Amino acid sequence: MHKPLGEFIRLHREQTKPQDVGLRADGRRRTPGLRREELAQLCDVSPTWLEQGRPVSASAKVLGRLADVMHLTAAERTYLFRLADKLDTSEANHDSPSANFAAIVKAIRTPAYILDRQWDAIAWNRPATDLFSGWLDQGKSAAPANLLRFMFGSSSARSLIADWPERAQRLVAEFRADCGKYADDEPYASLIAELRRDSEEFKTMWNAHHVLGRDGGSRRFRHPTQGALTFEQVTLNLAAAREVKLVMLLPA
């Protein structure tokens, strides 16, 4: 375990009161807060594992237990996982639709939508609904409105997106960059396996290992009722939820 990770765990262990985790604080304690052995027991790990500065790889499951026991805030939990170089895939940390997300896209007058880490659309506005026929106009169905599923699994995408082959290649390269070394972890792994199984084009593009930043650029559409449309795409990560992306299509 890297030294900064061990120091961070020690600091928050010492700030966690025994009574806050159901332990009795009997007798005098040389160590403020929880003892190392107590935290290890609560997290079901060996006491020698904690805070030793050894190159031990902490699993995401153990890190999640540590965060829960020490009552870390969302920001502290994110920092813990970053120090350990792990992806937090717990349900408690999943980005989900919220009133704030809906308010953000509703305030934008041009097509705008928000994607979570696996590129499911979790909020979008009316202009985006009107533009993306076959994707965001399907309503809140049981299946997530995933951008890659739409791109490779819907005939509407091929007719709507003017330069479909180039855009499809770019999207796959951008998604690979997003996944990074976590492509074999959930929630990415199941989605990638599904797309590889259902689309030979996705499989070929994914196997090419191209990587691109999601930097925006010109987006051209052939809308069934609005005709030819051109936008300039702007993509931003939200400070309050860094795993999600706000995508805006501005008039070109």
UniProtKB/TrEMBL annotation:
Q: Report the superkingdom from the record.
A: Bacteria
Report the leader peptide range: none
Report the InterPro entries cross-referenced here.
Cro/C1-type_HTH (IPR001387), Lambda_DNA-bd_dom_sf (IPR010982), MLTR_LBD (IPR041413)
Xref: Pfam families:
HTH_31, MLTR_LBD
Boundaries of every MmyB-like transcription regulator ligand binding domain copy: 104-250
Listed name of the protein: Helix-turn-helix domain-containing protein
Name the source organism: Herminiimonas contaminans
**What does the organism's lineage look like at the top?**
Bacteria, Pseudomonadati, Pseudomonadota, Betaproteobacteria, Burkholderiales
